[in-house]
Amino acid sequence: MKLMNQINQLKQLIQIFDQFHLLKRKNISKGICLLLFPIMMFQNCYLNPFVYDLLNPMLEEEKKAGLLDGGLLLALNGLSSSFYLSGIIRNGSGVAQFNKEYSVTASESIADSIGLTGNTESSGRFFLPIGQGNTTIRVTDAGEALVTFTLNVSGPGMVSVTSIDPPEYEIGSLFPYDPTNKPVFFDIISSTPENNGTAYYSTTTITLTFSDTLPNWEFIELESIINNNIIVSPSSITFGSPAVSGNQISIMAMVSVFDILYTMQIGPGISSVKGTPVTPTTIRFFTQENLP
User: Fold this and answer.
1) Ranges for all domains in the chain classified under CATH 2.60.40.1120
2) 82-177: CATH homologous superfamily?
3) pLDDT digits (tens, 9 = 90+) for 195-224
4) Which domain of life is it from (predicted)?
C-alpha cells in the first residue's frame, strides 16, 4: 500500500513537471517561477537516485538532467506565509558570487528582516527569511553595488524573482529550508565555457567546478555518471575522456556543428565526496570553429 501511494504521488509530480515545463516556456514578466511542493516529494524524488532513475524514462530528454533548471522545484510541507529561503547569486557568466555581502532593504511582510545582512557562502548562496509580498535584497562587494533583486511570494507555494538589476545577473537554485537544521548544498560554481560564453574549435574541453570535493571515481564509473547526468542538446557534441581533480570535472568534447546555441543540463546523479547530490543546473553556450 505504501508503494502504491508513492507511485501515485510520483505520477502527480510528473504531471506537475509537465505543467511547469509549459509554464516555463512562456515569457512571464521576465520572472522565474517557483512551485513549492510537499517535502515528502522533495525527499523521495530529488535526493533519491532510485526514484530519479524511475522517473527518467518518463521525462522528456531535456528534463533528464534534473528535476528543474537551476534546482528550482522545491517544497515545504504546510508552507506558511513566511519561511526561510536559500538561493545562489551568479553573474552573467554563471560564476557564483561568493563572500559578497547581502542585505534586505525592503519587505512587505517581515518588518524585522529589513536591515538583515549576511555574506554569501563559497557556493554563492544566501540564506534569509521571506514572507508574503515583495522582499528586496541588495548585494555588494567591498561596498560597491553588484546587484539588487526582488523576490515575490504571491501565495502558498508560489515564489518568483520579479526584478534583477543589472539584468545579466541570475538568482537561482532556490530552496526553502528549516533554520534549525541548515542544509548542506552541493552546487556548480563556475564552468568552461562560461554560461552564455563560447567554445572554440572542433575539440574543446568542458570543465565544471563544484562547491565541494568530488569522489575519486574509477574511470568506467565516471564515464557512466557523465553520460547519465550531463546532457547536451542539440546532440552534435560528443564526449571523450573525462577526468576528476579535486572539485573539478573535465570532459573532452568533440563539436560537429558550429554557430549554434547549446544547452547543457547537469543532473543530481553527480554527488560530492560527502554524498550530497549536486543541484540541477543548466549552462548555455555557443560554439565557433575558430577564434574571432
Assistant:
1) 82-177
2) Carboxypeptidase-like, regulatory domain (2.60.40.1120)
3) 999 999 999 999 999 999 999 999 999 999
4) Bacteria
Maximum Cα–Cα distance across the chain: 62
How confident is the model at residue 292, as a pLDDT?
84
CATH number of 188-288: 2.60.40.1220
The predicted structure's pLDDT at residue 5: 46
Res. 57: pLDDT tops 60: no
Rounded to an integer, the average pLDDT of 266-280 is: 97
CB within 8 Å of 19: residues ≥ 6 apart: none
Round to whole Å and give the CA distance between 48 and 29.
34
